[in-house]
């Protein structure tokens, strides 16, 4: 499973509803429901004054879970139970000292897991993976692992096997990029190293073929991300132009309606007013 962070998602409910979530360029998160299988309804504001990246998860009970960062240096958790939205501040941080990226949220075994990467603004190579977990009583927090971020690498992704979270992250060991894996046990509720990828940084480096393939994958990912962002920008522009076009059309219809009323009034005055020729010329 890919990381569920980004700036745009589409959520499909069991009853056929489709909602599009997105962050705009003005620090807001919106969603738009699809109506009539072809038109998007007006956007509904979910949260304002937040950064663009956010993580989203729809659980089996069709509750929505969102993780994002506020512009007041807060880590926010938003929950939607099918009727109401609620917001919780998980923690605060100092954005002058730290940068938080790739917020990700997972609902698993009635527990909510939030994973993100945090780095020091004074040294953007040194990062940590961090984990919040809700156990229906309290939020627990732990630093999973420290790593040196490989440039242009999305630092981690996850998959679910046997109800355990298998998290793979990329880092630098020596001067070479390496891939490591750690596992969160649903029974023990803790992280441990995968047998073939210990946390001490001794995982085998990529072979030349693997490195070449990884470089191609990263290049494709960069192109795909750019193309997708361009597509979203065009879609939003088209939506805005459609909205403005409909407003303009309605204004023109009102003006035409007003003209018909004016014509009717002029015809009435023509029968009484000596300036009949003047009004007649106006009608023509």
What does this entry look like structurally?
There is one protein chain. With 284 residues, this protein is of the alpha+beta class. It has helices at residues 208-270, 276-283, and strands at 5-6, 8-12, 18-23, 28-35, 39-40, 44-48, 50-58, 64-70, 74-80, 85-92, 98-108, 111-120, 123-134, 139-148, 156-161, 164-173, 176-185, 190-193. A 5-stranded antiparallel beta sheet has the order 1-7-8-9-10, with no helix packed on it. α1 (208-270) runs antiparallel to α2 (276-283).
Defining traits:
284 residues; alpha+beta; five-stranded antiparallel sheet; elongated
Task: Produce the secondary structure layout.
Blueprint: E1 5-6, E2 8-12, E3 18-23, E4 28-35, E5 39-40, E6 44-48, E7 50-58, E8 64-70, E9 74-80, E10 85-92, E11 98-108, E12 111-120, E13 123-134, E14 139-148, E15 156-161, E16 164-173, E17 176-185, E18 190-193, H1 208-270, H2 276-283
Antiparallel strand pairs: 1-7, 2-3, 3-4, 4-5, 4-6, 7-8, 8-9, 9-10, 11-12, 12-13, 13-14, 15-16, 16-17, 17-18
Helix pairs in contact: 1-2
Overall strand count: 18
The helix-strand sequence is EEEEEEEEEEEEEEEEEEHH
Coarse shape:
elongated
Binned, the helix content reads: 25-40%
SSE class: alpha+beta
Write out the strand line-up for the largest beta sheet, numbering strands in chain order: 1-7-8-9-10
Distance between the termini: 69 Å
Number of helices: 2
Major sheet characteristics: 5 strands, antiparallel
Q: Beta-sheet strand percentage?
A: over 45%
> What's the Cα radius of gyration?
28 Å
- Low-confidence runs of at least 5 consecutive residues: 198-206
Mean pLDDT: 81
């Amino acid at each position: 499973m890919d990381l569920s962070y980004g700036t745009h998602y589409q959520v499909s409910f069991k009853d056929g509803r489709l909602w599009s979530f997105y962050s705009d360029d003005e620090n807001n998160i919106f969603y738009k429901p699809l109506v009539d299988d072809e038109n998007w309804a007006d956007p509904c504001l979910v949260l304002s004054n937040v950064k663009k990246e956010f993580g989203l998860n729809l659980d089996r009970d069709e509750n929505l879970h969102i993780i994002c960062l506020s512009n007041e240096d807060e880590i926010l958790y938003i929950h939607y139970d099918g009727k109401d939205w609620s917001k919780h501040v998980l923690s605060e941080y100092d954005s002058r000292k730290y940068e938080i990226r790739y917020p990700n949220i997972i609902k698993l075994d009635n527990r909510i897991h939030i994973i993100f990467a945090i780095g020091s603004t004074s040294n953007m190579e040194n990062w940590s993976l961090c984990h919040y977990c809700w156990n229906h009583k309290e939020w627990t927090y732990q630093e999973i692992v420290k790593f040196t971020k490989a440039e242009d690498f999305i630092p981690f992704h996850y998959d679910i096997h046997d109800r355990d979270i298998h998290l793979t992250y990329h880092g630098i060991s020596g001067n070479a990029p390496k891939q490591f894996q750690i596992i969160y046990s649903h029974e023990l509720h803790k992280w441990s190293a995968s047998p073939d990828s210990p946390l001490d940084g001794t995982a085998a480096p990529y072979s030349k073929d693997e490195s070449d393939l990884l470089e191609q994958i990263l290049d494709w990912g960069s192109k795909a991300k750019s193309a997708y962002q361009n597509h979203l920008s065009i879609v939003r522009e088209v939506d805005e132009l459609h909205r403005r076009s409909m407003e303009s059309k309605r204004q023109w219809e009102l003006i035409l309606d007003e003209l018909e009323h004016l014509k009717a009034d002029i015809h009435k005055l023509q029968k009484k007013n000596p300036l009949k020729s003047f009004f007649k010329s106006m009608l023509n």
